[in-house]
Structures are given as C-alpha cells and as structure tokens.
C-alpha cells in the first residue's frame, strides 16, 4: 500500500531562526511559489515548487497565492471559560468571582464539559489554532472531556486539572491530597498518549495552600517531563494579595520556587509585573513566559514588554487566555500584541508576531522539535491563510510592496475568514 502523500502549493513561510535574534531576512524563508510535501503526517520537504519531489501517487492541492505556514499554538487558554468570553467591566479578582467561578462550577456536569470542549476546539480550529495548552476546571472529568475531544480530532494538545484548595467557592475546591491524587491519575492516563501531554496546574498561588503547592511540586518531581502551568504577576492587587498570603516568600515567583514549582518546564501566564530578581531567576532556569495581550488589555492588567524580554533571553510564547482574553483568534492576538508593543515603544515586526504564535509558543511548551514550524521532519499541523479575506484587507494587501506588507493587514485585521484551510498531522481538517 502506498503511504498517504500530499503536495500543497502556495506561498510558504518557514523560520530558519528566531527573528528576535537575527535579521528578518535571515530568519525567515519565504517561497513565493512554494510547495510542501507531506507524508504520514510529517512535513518531508519544503521548497520552491519547481524543485520539490513529486511522487506519482501524491495528491496535489493548489492554494495559489495563499500563505502556507505552521498552525498557531495557543500557549495559555481556559477552555472552560469559552461561554463567558467578553464579560464586561471587572478587574481580575472580581472577574474570577463573578463570571469565571460560577461558569467553571457548571463543568462538574461531564455532559456540559463535553459540549464546551467540543465548542472550544471548533472555535480554535476555525481560527487556525492547531495546539493549545489549556487549564481545565477542578473536576477531573473536565480534563477527560478535553483530551477525548482533542484525541478524536488527532490534535497535539495539552492540559491539566486546575487545582485550588482555598479562596475559591466550596464547590470548586479540592484538597492537597486530592489534587495530588487526581492530577497523578490524569497524568498517568493521558500524558504521552498519542499527541497528548499533561501539565500540572495549580491555578495561582492565592488559590493554593502551601500544602497543595508542596504536593504538586512532589508530583512534578516524580514526573519531570510534564509541564507545570500557572499564573504569575498579572495585576498589582493580585501581587499584593500574594505577599499577604505568603509573608515568608521573597516575591511571587518564590511562592512557586519554594514548593518545587519552578523549572525549565514551568509555563507562566501573564508575567507582566515581574521584579528584576524574578526575571533573572526565570531566565536562569529557562522557564517560559506567556504573553496574553487581549486579556491583559481586556481585564486591565498591564503591558507586557515582549521585545525587552526576548532580547534579554527569555522564552516567550503567545496566547489568547480566553475567556479573560477577548478572542479565540491568534491573528487577533498578534494584532493586540502589536498594539501593546507600540504602547511600550518596542514595535514588533510581523515576522516576530508570527514567530511568537508558532515557534515561540512551541518553545515554551518544549515541543519546538515537533510543531510550530514549516520544516522538514515537523508534524504537518498547518494553516493556510488567505491574505485577501475581506475587502478591507484585500485592498491594502494589493498595494503591498513586499511580502510583509502583504501579510501585515491579515495580522491586524484578519479573523476566522482568513483561515482558508487547516491541516492536522497531514490530514485536511473538515469543518
Ligand atoms: N486571566 C486569568 N487570570 C487568572 N488568574 C487566576 N486564574 C485566572 C484566570 O482564569 N484567568
Ligand atoms: Zn489564564
């Protein structure tokens, strides 16, 4: 039997290196008439269309001038908050208490959790997101429904049971022991099953006792190949609360480090207001920071300095943080990252925005050898972008004098209409 082989024709975009460290022209390889050869779920060749190997049995899909690149990777999302996206007018702690916790409580019902997981992945894929690292709720079944849904679709996906044993409503609290036991059972069930991965997930220091953080630190020490995801330094009120709750900690980061929750595979959401010491320590251990620009502006949290962090050597990924974030679209998220970068006077180049949404996120998830780039040997999770998806975008890209001027209007104004096709592990995603 011949293996399933596809050839995609179009403009192709691949990263040779990090465009924060190298000039864009060196870092990015673009073929105006490019081709991708896919076999058995992997990218086998990328290059000019006239040089690509063309096996007789290959199915050819011609995307014309559309842009073929790696699928987007959302490095921090709360799938259970799908239905409460765009809830008006609160800051973090009130927003959690008023909107988030009541909705997360509803996911105690596995049928409802299943419905929301399905809705979440439908929306993510419609927006070209092929991998997400999500928080579930405290209910173990909410992790099962997420992974079952991802598995059904053949996605590479990561998540963890959110752990909280204080400062949360009664029906959303576990204990140090049950958080350990449930997380361990879920991790053993899902981590490494096909394309799925587990992330140990204390929500954030204010909702975990020291006992719970210690228990989760112990679990991570037993399973160091898992990720550990949490929130850090999102809002000033939150930081002040952490220093009241943990009077012996040097700072917010220390509340994690003291309990064995700081390492290379830590993924810290937001990380806007870090002290010098925290930044230096995170860089030293090589942990990841995740920029959530639509959330940081929507909840009024602050301005993350992407370029400064990248130039100082931090690993930075990009994320929607829905439902705190106001969009499921990583294009919209890149636009927001651009706007924030203008406000801190470190404007990001379109190549840097695309890199953050693919390679950057993949690095923070320690998956950069598998996903996040259109290159030989990588898993064929791809997005095909229509660079003229609306009249407003089309009239601007028509005037473009170079490829970046052709791409940037789609970053700034594009949405799910710009997503022409999505490929998952070498299979065309059917909507
Ligand atoms: N944006 C956001 N921040 C948090 N901090 C703790 N939990 C959350 C959450 O669900 N969303
Ligand atoms: Zn979050």
Automatic annotation (TrEMBL):
<feature type="domain" description="Amidohydrolase-related">
    <location>
        <begin position="68"/>
        <end position="426"/>
    </location>
</feature>
<keyword id="KW-0862">Zinc</keyword>
<dbReference type="GO" id="GO:0005829">
    <property type="term" value="C:cytosol"/>
</dbReference>
<dbReference type="GO" id="GO:0006147">
    <property type="term" value="P:guanine catabolic process"/>
</dbReference>
<dbReference type="InterPro" id="IPR011059">
    <property type="entry name" value="Metal-dep_hydrolase_composite"/>
</dbReference>
<comment type="pathway">
    <text>Purine metabolism; guanine degradation; xanthine from guanine: step 1/1.</text>
</comment>
<dbReference type="GO" id="GO:0008892">
    <property type="term" value="F:guanine deaminase activity"/>
</dbReference>
<protein>
    <recommendedName>
        <fullName>Guanine deaminase</fullName>
        <ecNumber>3.5.4.3</ecNumber>
    </recommendedName>
</protein>
<dbReference type="InterPro" id="IPR032466">
    <property type="entry name" value="Metal_Hydrolase"/>
</dbReference>
<dbReference type="Pfam" id="PF01979">
    <property type="entry name" value="Amidohydro_1"/>
</dbReference>
<comment type="similarity">
    <text>Belongs to the metallo-dependent hydrolases superfamily. ATZ/TRZ family.</text>
</comment>
<keyword id="KW-0479">Metal-binding</keyword>
<dbReference type="InterPro" id="IPR006680">
    <property type="entry name" value="Amidohydro-rel"/>
</dbReference>
<dbReference type="InterPro" id="IPR014311">
    <property type="entry name" value="Guanine_deaminase"/>
</dbReference>
<dbReference type="InterPro" id="IPR051607">
    <property type="entry name" value="Metallo-dep_hydrolases"/>
</dbReference>
<keyword id="KW-0378">Hydrolase</keyword>
<dbReference type="GO" id="GO:0008270">
    <property type="term" value="F:zinc ion binding"/>
</dbReference>
<comment type="function">
    <text>Catalyzes the hydrolytic deamination of guanine, producing xanthine and ammonia.</text>
</comment>
